[in-house]
Amino acid sequence: SQREIMSSNGNDNKKFKGDVRGPSVPSRVLHIRKLPSDITETEVIGLGLPFGDVTNLLMLKAKNQAFLEMNSEEAAQNMVGYYSTVMPIIRHQPVFVQFSNHKELKTDNSPNQERAQAALRALSTSHVDTTVAAPSSVLRVVVDNLAYPVTLDALCQIFSKFGTVLRIIVFTKNSQFQALLQYPDGASAQAAKLSLDGQNIYNSCCTLRISFSKLTSLNVKYNNEKSRDFTRPDLPSGDSQPAIEHPAMAAAFTPGIISAAPYAGATHAFPPAFTIQPAGLTFPALPGALSSLSLPGATRLGFPHIPTGHCVLLVTNLNPERVTPHCLFILFGVYGDVMRVKILFNNKENALVQMSDRTQAQLAMSHLNGYRLYGRNVRITLSKHTSVQLPREGHEDQGLTKNYSNSPLHRFKKPGSKNYSNIFPPSATLHLSNIPPSVSEEDLKMLFSSSGAVVKAFKFFQKDHKMALIQMSSVEEAIESLMEFHNHDLGENHHLRVSFSKSSI
């Protein structure tokens, strides 16, 4: 009977006092909390439909709660996994979805339950035909003036404010960065287009141009940094990146703010490329807005500025013979200001790198993950630590932890610095600047070959001999050369500046 359900739900409620995550044992019944008081049955059912058929619904309007039963446990797991990373927002209010202790719902024929049943019948027959108002539930997004890289995750965070992003594909066409993005209904697509078209993701750049796609649905084969189907966490990652198998890596992802697994007990860990959906950050602190990847001052999309926490990267598979805190400081410093570096004392293949903010952590991770460094492919993920602890006074840690917060070598101290617009992925060609007049092409070629690397080509800038391009024989050599020779003293009070170039010689 309904009364029996209500009374046993009292236990569900008590759980929330201490443990917001709720029961972790999967069930096809979901407990939904913090619903707006004027919620409709249709809106609650709409939360579940993208993941499978909804077989029953119990509304507890007086408590701002509901119970939703899915047709399978798998559908329910996918739904909880998705909503644990992308907070569902109904009428500008965050809603919480978790497994219930009930294995199935029994509902009676009281009038309010009859309304729920009617809504279910209506929706399951038409399978949500709310697309009448909008031409399509699929949006085509073009990012103009791409001065900073925009990731698939960044787009998900922005577009999730308007509804559940079911599937997304990013690609480059006509040398423009574009995305196709599918919502469960046309209304969300319409709202996103109205709010976001013409907006800048970052200050005065990365402008969104949004139109309705002719496609009615997206077909996604792989979950990786180019495409994702949130309703199917079981999809393979394709060739872009192997999934995490290393036990140390798995341990690094114990569910915290960022969890690699889409839900507790998941068998398919998402590859590190997309663990950046900060579930924890979107809870009470930021109702209605997903955490932003905004650069300082980028409030165009109404994003709150993220607290500086969660800007620590976990770097694994390092070559312990060669890597020092200084070389990580220089390399990660290409993408942001590095505050602290710690090579782990009992496992020197792993390090923590603390950037000055989340955007810089995101930039460093998206640019450096997977590149070879001293013969090993380095993996980078967001750490669960919010800062790197310095050793206590008098405790020797063999120089493995370094504080760089006051270093003169930070590239991004000055707001609006040219360095912001010269952020490129690692490349075999390096851009050199601050070269004194007395230093010749031969001097620089000698310097860069002195470490055993091979210089393939060299060219001074025509207008300005203070700058040059130098091409190494591989990207790996260029990365190592940058770490070794950035800030090298060339005499006459000139320290060489080295960065990756987007042009080749």
Automatic annotation (TrEMBL):
Cell compartment(s), UniProt: Nucleus
Cellular-component GO terms for this entry: nucleus
Segments forming a coiled coil: none
Ranges where the RRM domain occurs: 28-102, 139-215, 311-385, 428-503
Keyword annotations of the record: Acetylation, Activator, Isopeptide bond, mRNA processing, mRNA splicing, Nucleus, Phosphoprotein, Repeat, Repressor, RNA-binding, Ubl conjugation
One Gene Ontology term of the molecular function aspect: RNA binding
Top-rank taxon: Eukaryota
Comp. bias intervals (Polar residues): 1-11
Endoplasmic reticulum among keywords: no
Region named Disordered: 1-23
GO biological process: mRNA processing; negative regulation of gene expression; negative regulation of mRNA metabolic process; RNA splicing
SMART domains referenced in this protein's UniProt entry, alphabetically: RRM
PANTHER family: MATRIN 3/NUCLEAR PROTEIN 220-RELATED
UniProt cross-references to NCBIfam families, sorted A to Z: hnRNP-L_PTB (TIGR01649)
Name of the protein in its database record: Polypyrimidine tract-binding protein 1
Species per Swiss-Prot/TrEMBL record: Salarias fasciatus
Taxon lineage: Eukaryota, Metazoa, Chordata, Craniata, Vertebrata
